[in-house]
Amino acid sequence: MVGFTRILFAFAVSMGSSNFCAWQAFAYEMDGEFGYLDHSAIPAGQSAPLPHSEFEDRRTPGERLRKFSLALKKLGIPEESAPAFLDFPTPGSVALSQIQENFPALDPDGAVRRYLGLDQNGLSLFRDFASSDISSSLLEFFFPFQPKQARKSFFSDSELLLDRLRKIGSQVRQSLYAHPLSGLRVVIDPGHMGNEEWDHHTGKFVSVGGKTVSEGDIALSTALLLAGELEDLGAEVILTRTKNGPVARTNLDTFDHSPYLHQYFYNSLDSWMSEYLKLPDERLLSSVSQAPETARAFTSTQRKQFFIGGEDLEARSRIIDEARADIVIDVHFDASKSHELQSGNRSIEAFVPGGVRATETGSRVVRSHHLKHILEARRWQESVSLASSMIESMGKSLNLPLLSRPEFLTSVKVRDGVYARNLYINRRNLSALMVYLECLHYDHVREFPGLTLKDRTGTYRGATFFYPRRLDAVVAGAKDGILRYFMAME
To answer: Smallest Cα–Cα separation from 205: which of 309, 340, 100, 70?
Structure first.
């Protein structure tokens, strides 16, 4: 990922209460954000301590929202609509213990839990921080848990998806199937855009000594090769793009950026806006109007970011929604600087949904997305298993180590090589298993020269393309990891 500055230090925290286990955290700093939890350091069956939130407001429930509504009106931003809560798990299909097990990776700061009322009976999502006297008028959603006395559930979250995956697993384990992945629907999303114009906009390239490697271009070649391999095994594959350029069919200069501008301000409730909401109304309105964050929202630079990180990613997400996929694979490669090579980091990793931070839960719709990932505990756990299988196989195929400590400030370690991270595509994919790959470091001195040579020829659905031979090892590992996942699935 180009442009990241990383400062790493490790520290251990030991809680005095016997209710909390000692846990280890790896902290990163970039743009003023801090703090990550190493999920693997927590003993099985225990949750991490719920961190104190500096943003918590113990005033009358609803007062914070009243002030926020005033600020939005002053800025000409309509209030956010209620989430739809579509395709949530069947009531009673999830137990409290199931979701608690995943909290350290999915909600490490307790950011979503600030909005939740939790007990053995069910989960309540409120529009503001939950407290003993919060008004029922602020209730957004209620989900009853599986009865504690039930020995075995007759249903569970994501049961239809898991039934389809188990069927594929049975086929893979039987050698008589010529097309063992028949019935599997996969979406592959080649990250970024991959031509000179868009590389300039996104910074996703490395150019040294007159030679350039575009992340979007090698991601596309990898996706085309992997799609061909999976289709040969019987899978149905949908690609979000088959050529370089944006997936969005709109234009950077003319697209309607208002949904993303609105979302920018909705998200601010738990981040930069929170300090202003402590002010008296008159000072609040004048301060918000003059805030640097408000000015930034209306710049051409931010408009471009709304297109790259909003409009285009939403277009990809809509393809995923419409496909009703079983598995989504996002293909990316890693780099730190655009005009310099490095010799230190060659490890690889994969991301799954989660890792939501305390500054990332201001929006009602975003909270509903996080909640769906929390409630669909089995789907999330299967994403982790698939990601682990794929990244382990890729490590062997590429002869590269798995990342053992978080590399990005928003990463939460689940296991070696697998991290929860609140990326747009991860969060927005609400129905399939999700694996977001960082295949290798294309800025490494040993990788870059080979990746500049398109010395292999590939064909996908009648179209010919040229690519670096190193990608063969990436694809071989990814395919083998998918098959290994199904071989092991019960």
So the answer is: 340
Going from the C-alpha of 239 to that of each of 189, 199, 331, 424, the distances in angstroms are 6, 20, 11, 18
Neighbouring CB atoms inside 10 A of 248's CB total 19
Structure tokens at 165: 């995956």
pLDDT-above-90 percentage for the chain: 78
Domain assignment of residue 306, yes or no? yes
**50 neighbors 111 (Cβ within 8 angstroms):** no
Which residue type sits at 270? D
Residue type present at position 208: V
Backbone angles phi, psi at 291, to 5 degrees: -65, 140
Spatial distance between the Cα atoms of 71 and 281, rounded to a whole number of angstroms: 9
236 and 262: one domain? no
What's CA 57's distance to the chain center, in Å? 28
Question: What is the pairing mode between strands 456-460 and 327-334?
Answer: unpaired
Domains identified in the chain, total number: 2
Q: What is the rounded distance in angstroms from the CA atom of residue 341 to the CA atom of residue 205?
A: 11
Decide if 350 contacts 426 (C-beta within 8 A): no
Strands (E) across 22-98 are located at 23-27
- Cα–Cα dist 325/341, whole Å: 37
User: For 211-258, what is each residue's pLDDT tens digit?
Assistant: 999 999 999 999 999 999 999 999 999 999 999 999 999 999 999 999
Same structural domain, 93 and 242 = no
Strand partners, 207: 212
- The domain boundary, picked from 273, 297, 321, lies at 297
**What is residue 81's three-state secondary structure?**
coil
**Structure tokens that stand for 193 in this block:** 């855009």
269's tokens: 């409730």
Residues 319 and 390 grouped into a single domain: yes
Range of the domain at 267: 61-155+255-297
266/351 same-domain check? no
Tokens encoding 436: 């977001």
Residue 457 lies in a domain: yes
Question: Does 242 lie in the same domain as 336?
Answer: yes
Judged against a pLDDT cut of 90, whether residue 15 lies above it is answered with no
What is the arithmetic mean of pLDDT over 383-407? Answer: 95
| pLDDT tens-digit readout, 31-78 | 223 333 333 333 343 334 444 344 445 456 689 999 999 999 999 999
> Computed over its alpha carbons, how large is the radius of gyration of the chain?
23
The pTM of the full predicted model, rounded to 2 decimals, is: 0.88
Task: Say if 12 falls within a structural domain.
Answer: no
φ, ψ (nearest 5 deg) of residue 476: -60, -40
3-state secondary structure of 263: helix
- Tell me the per-residue pLDDT of 94-145, one tens digit each, with 9 for 90 and over: 999 999 999 999 999 999 999 999 998 999 999 999 988 888 999 999 999 9
Report the greatest alpha carbon distance in the chain. Answer: 74
CB atoms under 10 Å from CB of 70, counted, come to 15
